[in-house]
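We were asked to recover a plausible sequence for a given structure. The inputs and outputs are reproduced exactly as logged, with field labels preserved.

PROBLEM: sequence recovery
POSITIONS: 85
GIVEN STRUCTURE:
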């Protein structure tokens, strides 16, 4: 092992998977029913940010993507008269 590099922690891997799941859930929620899926995706992304580690930038991007999907999903549902739930 080289000097200055460290073994990835299990928490880093979990944070990456949580951030990826949050992005996927927010994208599905924006297209389907925003108030069913996106709040849980936001919660997952905030947990991933709290874990931090190697995937801190991915987790931060997941929070931003979830917020954008929330606003886009709500606006699209209201404009097209689709149910929010």
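RECOVERED SEQUENCE:
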């Amino acid at each position: 092992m080289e000097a200055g590099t460290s073994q990835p922690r299990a928490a880093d891997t979990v944070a990456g998977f949580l951030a990826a799941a949050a992005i996927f859930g927010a994208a599905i929620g924006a297209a389907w029913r925003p108030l069913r899926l996106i709040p849980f995706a936001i919660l997952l992304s905030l947990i991933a940010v709290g874990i931090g580690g190697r995937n801190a930038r991915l987790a931060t991007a997941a929070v931003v993507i979830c917020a954008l999907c929330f606003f886009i999903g709500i606006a699209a549902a209201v404009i097209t008269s689709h149910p929010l739930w």
